[in-house]
């Protein structure tokens, strides 16, 4: 079970709304920091352990700054994400660049920042060399193929576009070494939103065994193993969060049995987790605009799918709290909708809630990852603001809401009279 509680009171929320109109995303600094500390603590046995926060989950510099203070690096996969890192003054070992189908200019930027480059394909060695030069350190992304069971979101590894096969991994390290690369890492990520901690143990075991084989076959020492992201979160109240301490103990056991017992050099462990780090600590706050009763009951919100598209995109469950009505019986069936001209613009379908009325505040839980970040402008909808609830209870705006002038910024209305039909 995971309790779906709010880190703020109804009174606090009313204060916030007096200053910032709904909808908005509100992030809980305290919850994020506590999770980050727990993550680091769980893996404190591993010297050099580092989690690289997958910035795509919630690419806000304020959140990154908080996580950086807790010792996290940044995991980037695009130009904008690299630039965000650069603007925060991050470089070198603080940046993991795990991209795929990568354009030359992104490799150039990653090299300029001296980021750790994690290559997604064997052909990228030559591509990187040609366009940006090879770094001292390289990492390769392993796709274990049918060694590993599928996961619902990423699917069967053989079908996934990511990573190198086992034999390509061997060739990649050999070729990179011949070309003068001297330091190596290894990466894999085959899960997304995985709640079974044993899944990560299995992944670690596959990676540790491969490290041993690489050492035996090629004499190449792997200095760090990046276990990727994919740590799931309990979107549903009846689900259980991944037990980090259990996972860490299991990985430690495998580390002792495979890395230490075979006399391999110490290995730094990394994750590039995104969802689990900010997901549960972000809340989408929205107000009921209209109640509509036709063949079904619809609660029409002032937020829509552009604020959080996971329910529409994946049919994902997001828990909803009606603020101030937590203790009333949830005995009314609603579709909770947005205003897009898309019938799948619904935050929930057939959800039992207490009876709601226009003006009621709804909080949509677990919106701190792939929430605001996935926002888009379809139907001329504007992306909402992001707010941070500080540990001392203060609230600060960490991204303003878009305005209509942002929406029209890429158009030139001045040139319109010239346009002859
Ligand atoms: C999305 C992604 C992550 C983060 O995944 P989460 O599920 O948010 O933990 C990490 N690494 C890569 C390469 C990714 O694509």
Give an overview in words:
- The protein is of the alpha/beta class.
- It folds into two domains: 29-276, Alanine racemase (TIM Barrel, Alpha-Beta Barrel), CATH 3.20.20; 280-408, Lyase, Ornithine Decarboxylase, Chain A, domain 1.
- Helix content is 30%, strand content 22%.
- Strands 1, 10, 11, 12, 13, 14, 15, 16 and 17 form a nine-stranded mixed β-sheet that branches.
- Helix 7 packs across helix 8 (197-218).
- The longest helix is centred in the middle third of the chain and has 22 residues, at 197-218.
- Pyridoxal-5'-phosphate (PLP) is lined by residues 54, 56-57, 75, 98, 189, 192, 228-231, 272-276, 369.
**Major pleated sheet:** 9 strands, mixed
Q: What series of H and E elements makes up the topology?
A: HEHEHEHEHEHEHEHEHEHEEHEEEEEEH
* Overall pLDDT metric: 96
Number of domains: 2
Distance between the termini: 62 Å
The share of residues in helices is: 25-40%
Query: Which CATH class of the largest domain applies here?
Result: Alpha Beta
Named CATH topology of the largest domain: TIM Barrel
SSE order and pairing:
Elements: H1 10-19, E1 24-28, H2 29-42, E2 50-54, H3 61-69, E3 73-76, H4 79-87, E4 95-98, H5 104-112, E5 116-119, H6 123-131, E6 137-142, H7 166-178, E7 183-188, H8 197-218, E8 222-226, H9 244-260, E9 268-271, H10 275-278, E10 282-293, E11 297-301, H11 310-314, E12 320-322, E13 332-337, E14 346-353, E15 361-364, E16 385-389, E17 395-399, H12 404-408
Parallel strand pairs: 1-16, 2-3, 2-9, 3-4, 4-5, 5-6, 6-7, 7-8, 8-9, 11-13
Antiparallel strand pairs: 1-10, 10-11, 10-15, 12-15, 13-14, 16-17
Helix pairs in contact: 7-8, 8-9
């Amino acid at each position: 079970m995971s309790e779906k509680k709010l880190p703020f009171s109804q009174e606090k929320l009313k204060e916030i709304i007096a200053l910032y109109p709904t909808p908005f995303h509100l992030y809980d600094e305290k919850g994020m920091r506590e999770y980050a500390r727990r993550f680091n603590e769980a893996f404190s046995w591993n010297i050099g352990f580092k989690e690289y926060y997958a910035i795509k989950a919630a690419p806000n510099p304020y959140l990154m700054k908080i996580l950086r203070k807790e010792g996290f690096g940044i995991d980037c996969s695009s130009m904008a994400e690299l630039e965000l890192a650069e603007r925060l003054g991050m470089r070198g070992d603080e940046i993991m660049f795990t991209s795929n189908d990568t354009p030359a200019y992104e490799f150039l930027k990653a090299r300029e920042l001296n980021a750790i480059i994690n290559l997604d394909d064997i052909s990228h060695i030559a591509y990187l060399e040609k366009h940006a030069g090879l770094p001292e350190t390289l990492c390769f992304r392993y796709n274990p193929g049918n060694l590993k069971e599928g996961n619902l979101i990423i699917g069967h590894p053989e079908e996934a576009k990511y990573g190198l096969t086992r034999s390509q991994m061997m060739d990649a390290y050999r070729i990179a070494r011949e070309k003068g690369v001297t330091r190596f890492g290894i990466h894999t990520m085959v899960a997304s939103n995985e709640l079974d901690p044993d899944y990560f143990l299995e992944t670690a075991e596959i990676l540790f065994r491969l490290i041993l084989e690489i050492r035996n076959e090629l004499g190449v020492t792997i200095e760090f193993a990046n276990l990727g992201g994919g740590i799931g979160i309990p979107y549903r109240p009846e689900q259980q969060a991944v037990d980090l301490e259990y996972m860490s103990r299991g990985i430690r056991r495998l580390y002792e049995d495979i890395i230490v017992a075979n006399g391999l050099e110490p290995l730094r462990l990394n994750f590039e987790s995104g969802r689990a780090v900010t997901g549960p600590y972000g809340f989408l706050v929205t107000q009921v605009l209209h109640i509509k009763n036709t063949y079904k009951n619809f609660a029409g919100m002032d937020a829509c799918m552009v604020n959080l598209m996971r329910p529409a995109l994946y049919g994902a469950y997001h828990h909803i709290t009606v603020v101030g009505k937590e203790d009333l019986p949830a005995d009314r069936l609603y579709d909770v909708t947005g205003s897009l001209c898309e019938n799948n613009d619904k935050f929930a379908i057939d959800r039992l809630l207490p009876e709601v009325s226009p003006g009621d505040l709804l909080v949509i839980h677990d919106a701190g990852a792939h929430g605001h970040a996935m926002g888009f402008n379809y139907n001329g909808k504007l992306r909402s603001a992001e707010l941070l609830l500080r540990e001392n209870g203060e609230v600060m705006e960490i991204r303003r809401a878009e305005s209509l002038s942002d929406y029209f910024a890429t158009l030139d209305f001045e040139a319109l009279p010239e346009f002859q039909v």
